[in-house]
């Protein structure tokens, strides 16, 4: 049997730490958006999918969901700065309170591009929720409203995050060997 945990040098954030943090974020977001008439969570595929699924189930107010897919890196571990929209939103976000759900903010280039793009579609409000933040790598300023964990400058995998398309299914966040 092939064991994907072989590629994990170190576990940075455990399943239990993730569970606790996602619960806290869900409570905070539910409180902050409780008066919204049209709350929409937009997940950025593919990396955000595991976080989105967990976070969504900690939301206690009415919410709709949408997905976008973007490509920024290819199979490399460093940013190209080039963002392509591979899958756009299915519905209009005009007048809605939009919360973008991301796996990780690294250089910030991807998020910068997506937020500018979405602002053009006139949401009522637009905020960012990211599971991970690597502030030391930032190239452009982006405002993050909800954050799981700040991490050092290491390439991480698991909990939605991949290396060459693999390891997204690890239930924790680990450092690639
Ligand atoms: P940014 O545009 O902020 O540099 O990077 C955004 C995207 O790069 C993330 O959504 C993620 O897909 C990828 N990325 C950045 N850092 C890492 C990392 O440590 N591990 C993995 N697997 N992907 C990363
Ligand atoms: Mg992402
Ligand atoms: Mg990736």
From TrEMBL:
GO molecular function terms attached to this record: guanine phosphoribosyltransferase activity; hypoxanthine phosphoribosyltransferase activity; magnesium ion binding; nucleotide binding
Alphabetic keyword roster: Cytoplasm, Glycosyltransferase, Magnesium, Metal-binding, Nucleotide-binding, Purine salvage, Transferase
EC number: 2.4.2.8
Associated pathway: Purine metabolism; GMP biosynthesis via salvage pathway; GMP from guanine: step 1/1; Purine metabolism; IMP biosynthesis via salvage pathway; IMP from hypoxanthine: step 1/1
Family, as annotated: Belongs to the purine/pyrimidine phosphoribosyltransferase family.
Pfam families in UniProt: Pribosyltran
GO biological process: GMP salvage; guanine salvage; hypoxanthine metabolic process; IMP salvage; purine ribonucleoside salvage
Keyword Transcription regulation found: no
GO cellular component, one term: cytosol
Alphabetical list of CDD domains matching this protein: PRTases_typeI (cd06223)
Function, in words: Purine salvage pathway enzyme that catalyzes the transfer of the ribosyl-5-phosphate group from 5-phospho-alpha-D-ribose 1-diphosphate (PRPP) to the N9 position of the 6-oxopurines hypoxanthine and guanine to form the corresponding ribonucleotides IMP (inosine 5'-monophosphate) and GMP (guanosine 5'-monophosphate), with the release of PPi.
Subcellular location: Cytoplasm
UniProt cofactor(s): Mg(2+)
Domain Phosphoribosyltransferase positions: 16-163
UniProt xrefs under InterPro entries: HGPRT, Hxn_phspho_trans, PRTase-like, PRTase_dom
Protein name: Hypoxanthine phosphoribosyltransferase
Species this protein is from: Caldicellulosiruptor changbaiensis
């Amino acid at each position: 049997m092939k064991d994907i945990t072989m590629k994990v040098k170190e576990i940075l954030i455990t399943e239990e730490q993730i569970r606790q943090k996602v619960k806290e974020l869900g409570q905070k977001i539910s409180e902050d958006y409780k008066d919204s008439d049209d709350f929409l969570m937009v997940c950025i595929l593919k990396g955000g999918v595991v976080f989105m699924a967990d976070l969504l189930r900690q939301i206690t107010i009415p919410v709709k969901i949408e997905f976008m897919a973007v490509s920024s890196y290819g199979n490399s571990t460093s940013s190209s700065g080039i963002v392509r929209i591979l899958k756009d939103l299915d519905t209009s976000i005009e007048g809605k309170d939009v919360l973008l759900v991301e796996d990780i903010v690294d250089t910030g280039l991807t998020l910068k591009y997506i937020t500018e793009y979405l602002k053009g579609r006139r949401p009522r409000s637009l905020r960012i929720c990211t599971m991970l933040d690597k502030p030391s790598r930032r190239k452009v300023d982006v405002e993050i409203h909800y954050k799981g964990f700040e991490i050092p400058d290491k390439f991480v995998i698991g909990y939605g995050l991949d290396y060459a398309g693999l390891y997204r299914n690890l239930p924790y966040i680990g450092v690639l060997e």
